[in-house]
């Protein structure tokens, strides 16, 4: 088996930090009710003060500095959503909807309905969007907010608090009464045209929502309750509950497994919590913050998140994601059954490494490390590796592998003085370990005694036969007329060996590889008859030895 070493020596990306929430700035004077970030640095905060004076603030440096956007109004703003870098919407008290078309620098009134209170806004395209309304209503637009159609959900006790869409058709909304009871969860599968109730709880209102995919959804609410669905909302199970009087106000996810819920701390002396999981809800960590009443959370990327509260301070979460390993991208051709070593440099921030192999390949050493030894099967494909991290896994690096099939191990047979390979082509014959120049046919006639082998090569992949020992080639038969005779020779049915020598002590018959077939004590006058059933077809060597184990006579016997 060949052993290949594939070594990569490029430097890995340097990224490193521990996961944490740190106050970085203040967005506005009052409560921040909603955050929207277009990337890790650029974002918006909306909310208001105790006099219901609404605010919109904008940051371009990751929440450190904020500037007030141009907005003149008294309505408390509750939600914000952008459909592009320039176009965004915010909504709130008094049924107010504002729109920007210049990236949030200026905002103008798009819609007002004094009978409403909009706490959620979401769009699935530039034109189609929805508002979460009061008393079990959702408003929908198909013309970018120029007109709205009201959809009644069949109950009037609870307001829509959060509304989020996974894609153009599938979305969910959660509802709660003003006292955080009478909770509902609704689902749409037609882009918001119709909604169905999929869950309700008379004792718990729901105010937090995040959608991982079309199947996996988390909802949070009163009593620090977290529900999870893994079947697209058909069924829901409780995966967490905490302080009875606290309520989760918002939720976001950094990845499919890393979910964050923020609460108001009502049941914990106004010490609000950020409750998180890193294993898809199997376990949760409750981190309480003294005197903070959390209201919103947003994750623009897997490594960066933002949260805010009733005093407008902005907290930033950062957790390094490992870089991409420096695995060579050069294609590699290898033979089935061969072993190869793949190595990468250490990636900063990595907690381990995950290697993914083509079908049939397997790791025999180093799994989970920067260097693995791999045995390949018969399937081509790519080998990939990515670094696992505390918060999320890094991007994978790939190397394409072409696997050529190693030919079957050839078998040597010997007949009538000729060696034959079981392979019809690709042969190279060897004598005593050395290549025989020009000996590339399926057969070879040995010219001297020794060890022969054959190597078969196809598409650069080779297999070596077992060694085959040949003896008796080039040995002259003794003048044994006065020692022994073999007749008939060649032998068809039988042959007779007649010995006439005063020094004869032993008769030995071997095959051409030197294996003893018969061994018989003899005397000076001895006759031995051998039948065809005792010897198979082939060439044999007959030796007569004296008491000192010295050769007295030698003859070939051909059995047909």
Can you summarize this structure?
0% of the residues lie in helices and 49% in strands. By secondary structure, it is mostly beta strands. It has 4 domains: 21-28 and 72-318, TolB, C-terminal domain (Neuraminidase, 6 Propeller), CATH 2.120.10.30; 329-404, Immunoglobulin-like, CATH 2.60.40.10; 412-470, no CATH class; 484-559, Sandwich (Immunoglobulin-like), CATH 2.60.40.
Features:
4-stranded mixed β-sheet; 4 domains; single chain; Neuraminidase; mainly beta; disordered N terminus; 51 strands; Immunoglobulin-like; 0% helix; 49% strand; 560 residues; 5-stranded antiparallel β-sheet
Tally of domains? 4
CATH class of the largest domain: Mainly Beta
Structural class of the helix and strand makeup? Answer: mainly beta
Query: What's the pLDDT, averaged over the residues?
Result: 91
Number of H/I helices: 0
CATH superfamily of the largest domain: TolB, C-terminal domain
Distance between the termini: 40 Å
Describe the fold and architecture.
The chain has 560 residues and is mainly beta. The chain folds into 4 domains: 21-28 and 72-318, Neuraminidase (6 Propeller); 329-404, Immunoglobulins (Immunoglobulin-like); 412-470, no CATH class; 484-559, Immunoglobulin-like. The protein is built from no helices and 51 strands. Strands 39, 40, 42, 43 and 44 form a 5-stranded antiparallel β-sheet that branches. Strands 1-31-34-33 form a 4-stranded mixed β-sheet, with no helix packed on it. Strands 2-29-28-27 form a 4-stranded antiparallel β-sheet, with no helix packed on it. It is rod-shaped. It starts with a strand and ends with a strand. Mean pLDDT is 91; it is low at 1-18.
């Amino acid at each position: 088996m060949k052993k290949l070493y594939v070594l990569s020596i490029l430097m890995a990306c340097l990224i490193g930090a521990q996961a944490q929430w740190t106050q970085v700035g203040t967005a506005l004077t009052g409560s921040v009710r909603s955050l929207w970030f277009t990337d890790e640095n650029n974002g918006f905060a909306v909310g208001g003060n105790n006099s219901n004076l609404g605010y919109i603030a904008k940051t371009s440096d990751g929440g450190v500095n904020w500037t007030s956007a141009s907005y003149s109004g008294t309505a408390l703003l509750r939600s914000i959503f952008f459909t592009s870098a320039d176009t965004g919407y915010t909504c709130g008290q008094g049924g107010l909807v504002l729109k920007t078309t210049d990236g949030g620098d200026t905002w103008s009134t798009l819609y007002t309905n004094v009978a409403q209170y909009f706490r959620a806004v979401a769009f699935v395209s530039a034109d189609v969007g929805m508002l979460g309304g009061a008393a079990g209503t959702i408003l929908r637009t198909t013309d970018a907010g120029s007109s709205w159609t009201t959809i009644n959900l069949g109950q009037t006790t609870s307001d829509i608090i959060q509304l989020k869409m996974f894609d153009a058709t599938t979305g969910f909304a959660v509802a709660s009464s003003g006292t955080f009871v009478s909770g509902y969860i609704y689902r749409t599968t037609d882009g918001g045209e119709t909604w169905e109730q999929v869950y309700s709880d008379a004792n718990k209102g729901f105010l937090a929502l995040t959608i991982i995919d079309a199947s996996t959804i988390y909802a949070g609410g009163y009593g620090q309750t977290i529900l999870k669905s893994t079947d697209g909302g058909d069924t829901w199970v409780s995966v967490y509950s905490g302080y009875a009087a606290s309520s989760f106000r918002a939720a976001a996810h950094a990845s499919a497994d890393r979910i964050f819920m923020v609460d108001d701390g009502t049941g914990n002396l106004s010490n609000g919590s950020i409750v998180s999981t890193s294993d898809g809800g199997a376990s949760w960590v409750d981190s309480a913050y003294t005197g903070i009443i959390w209201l919103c959370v947003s994750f623009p990327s897997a490594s960066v998140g933002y949260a805010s509260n009733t005093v407008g301070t902005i907290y930033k979460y950062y957790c390094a994601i490992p870089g991409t390993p420096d695995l060579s991208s050069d294609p590699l051709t290898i033979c089935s059954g061969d072993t190869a070593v793949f190595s990468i440099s250490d990636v900063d921030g990595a907690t381990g490494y995950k290697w993914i192999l083509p079908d049939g390949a397997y790791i025999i050493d180093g799994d989970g490390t920067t260097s693995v030894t791999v045995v390949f099967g018969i399937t081509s494909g790519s080998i990939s590796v990515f670094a696992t991290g505390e918060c999320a896994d890094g991007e994978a690096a790939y190397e394409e592998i072409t696997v050529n099939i190693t030919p079957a191990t050839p078998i040597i047979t010997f007949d009538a003085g000729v060696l034959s390979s079981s392979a019809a082509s690709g042969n190279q014959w060897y004598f005593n370990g050395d290549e025989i120049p020009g000996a590339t046919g399926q057969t070879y006639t040995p010219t001297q005694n020794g060890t022969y082998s054959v190597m078969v090569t196809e598409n650069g992949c080779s297999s070596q036969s077992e060694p085959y020992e040949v003896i008796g080639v080039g040995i002259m038969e003794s003048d044994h007329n006065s020692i022994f005779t073999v007749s008939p020779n060649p032998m068809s049915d039988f042959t007779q060996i007649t010995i006439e020598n005063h020094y004869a002590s032993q008769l030995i018959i071997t095959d051409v590889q030197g294996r003893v077939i018969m061994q018989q004590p003899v005397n000076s006058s001895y006759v031995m008859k051998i039948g065809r059933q005792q010897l198979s077809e082939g060439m044999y060597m007959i030796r007569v030895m004296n008491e000192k184990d010295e050769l007295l006579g030698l003859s070939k016997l051909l059995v047909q």
